[in-house]
Design the sequence.
């Protein structure tokens, strides 16, 4: 019965991004074919990009549109293809460039993200154009270009012009895609942009290696000092009471989000439940939400977070289903209605199996954050919801949420990241309805390791969020 009064609808929000002076939308520079889309094939320059190898090493082949060539099998991070670049032991290497639609200005700061990976195999025929055949090998043998390399990003004033090194990554050893958040601070005006595979430096001898690139972002002007970024501002342009009666069950809601430029900076909560699936187009500012509105008044909370602060704003949305489109519910006897309207009792989960002892520490498994981020990955919500249900079933329980990092980065960074992650868990639980007085959080940084930081497994164990029963 209750189900019949709920409608699956798509909410179309138009978030017109009104940026302040200093980083107006006009200061977003879009790369051409930033996702390196094309028909996957070897030695073919991807459209929108210029082959820098052609200039410097004319006898060598162009980069590859992957996957599928030279036994590269990685799944694209975005779309259908990605770029594969190699470095070779004959001291030649690959790179691509393009002219920017607007130049980067000197002494300003820009943010840029790109997904990077490495292929375990990048087999090229020996004696072909990819490598010098070592003695004793034949032309049909293959050489694996599998040694890790770095990505160098250059700025210049012509194709492949390397006037200024904007960034050089560490050596890329990971097979899976990882997003790199980079910041450029050019010392001169830059009209051309170049991505180049390069050897680990310093390095005595050239070697065979590869790097994979996909899903590059726009280049966005940002304040050089992050403290100069104002807190996000949310403004709703629609009247807060939307009477939704359209037969299509869609409506446009207008909001302005200032000082926000990425989807993961926005959190939407509809009637107390996190909206897990929504699309945000930071070019048009449109937010497409697939969620259920209930009949009557709905509460939608939007939270915008940036490096400075977070801002929340709540709207009431009234939904009146169109009468013609709905078969009316048969009248429900009062006792049945009461049953139908109360939610089913929550099932017990793994947290209920732990004994409630003051001071006991329980690890929250299956929480995932992107590197250097305090925003959850979607896979984390099941775990968070289990914890929420557990706290709801045990209303007298008070907890401290503790964030921990591994021991590699400096203290200041570890403290900030671990505090941010612990706070994100507390905020989520509070947003779902757990009373704030029951939740405290603390970032322990790298001060309380539970394993060695000398191995990858140990570092993974140390990187954790736990809660302690108070
Ligand atoms: Ca792609
Ligand atoms: Ca090539």
Sequence:
């Amino acid at each position: 019965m209750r189900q019949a009064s709920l409608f699956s609808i798509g909410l179309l929000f138009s978030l017109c991004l009104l940026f302040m002076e200093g980083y107006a939308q006009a200061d977003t520079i879009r790369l051409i074919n930033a996702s390196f889309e094309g028909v996957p094939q070897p030695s073919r320059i991807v459209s929108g990009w210029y082959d820098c190898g052609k200039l410097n090493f004319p006898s060598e082949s162009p980069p590859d549109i992957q996957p599928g060539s030279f036994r590269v099998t990685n799944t694209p991070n975005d779309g259908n293809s990605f770029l594969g670049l190699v470095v070779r032991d004959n001291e030649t290497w690959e790179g691509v460039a393009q002219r920017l639609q607007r130049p980067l200005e000197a002494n300003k700061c820009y943010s840029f993200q790109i997904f990077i990976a490495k292929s375990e195999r990048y087999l090229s025929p020996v004696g072909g154009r990819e490598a010098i055949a070592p003695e004793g090998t034949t032309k049909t043998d293959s050489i694996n270009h599998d040694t890790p390399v770095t990505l160098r990003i250059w700025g210049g004033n012509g194709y492949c012009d390397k006037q200024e090194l904007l960034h050089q990554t560490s050596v890329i050893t990971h097979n899976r895609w990882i997003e790199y958040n980079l910041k450029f601070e050019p010392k001169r005006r830059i009209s051309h942009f170049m991505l180049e595979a390069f050897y680990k430096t310093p390095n005595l001898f050239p070697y065979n290696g590869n790097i994979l690139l996909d899903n590059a972002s726009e280049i966005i002007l940002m304040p050089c000092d992050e403290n100069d970024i104002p807190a996000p501002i949310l403004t709703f342009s629609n009247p807060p009471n939307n009477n939704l009666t359209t037969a299509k069950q869609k409506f446009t809601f207008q909001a302005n989000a200032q000082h926000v430029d990425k989807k993961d900076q926005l959190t939407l909560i509809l009637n107390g439940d996190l909206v897990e699936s929504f699309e945000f187009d930071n070019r048009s500012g449109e937010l497409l939400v697939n969620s259920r509105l209930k009949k009557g008044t709905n509460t939608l909370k939007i939270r915008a977070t940036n490096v400075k602060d977070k801002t929340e704003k709540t709207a009431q949305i009234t939904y009146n289903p169109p009468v013609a489109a709905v078969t009316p519910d048969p009248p429900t006897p009062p006792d049945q209605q009461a049953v139908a309207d109360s939610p089913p009792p929550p099932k017990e989960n793994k947290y209920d199996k732990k004994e409630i002892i003051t001071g006991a520490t329980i690890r929250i498994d299956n929480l995932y954050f992107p590197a250097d981020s305090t925003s959850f990955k979607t896979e984390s919500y099941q775990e968070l919801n289990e914890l929420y249900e557990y706290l709801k079933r045990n209303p007298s329980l008070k907890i401290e949420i503790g964030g921990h990092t591994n021991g590699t980065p400096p203290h200041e960074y570890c403290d900030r990241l671990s505090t941010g992650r612990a706070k994100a868990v507390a905020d989520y639980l509070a947003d779902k309805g757990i009373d704030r007085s029951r939740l405290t959080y603390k970032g322990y940084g790298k001060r309380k390791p539970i394993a060695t930081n000398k191995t990858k497994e140990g570092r993974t164990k140390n990187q954790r969020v736990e809660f302690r029963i108070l």
The CA atoms of residues 330 and 411 lie 63 Å apart.
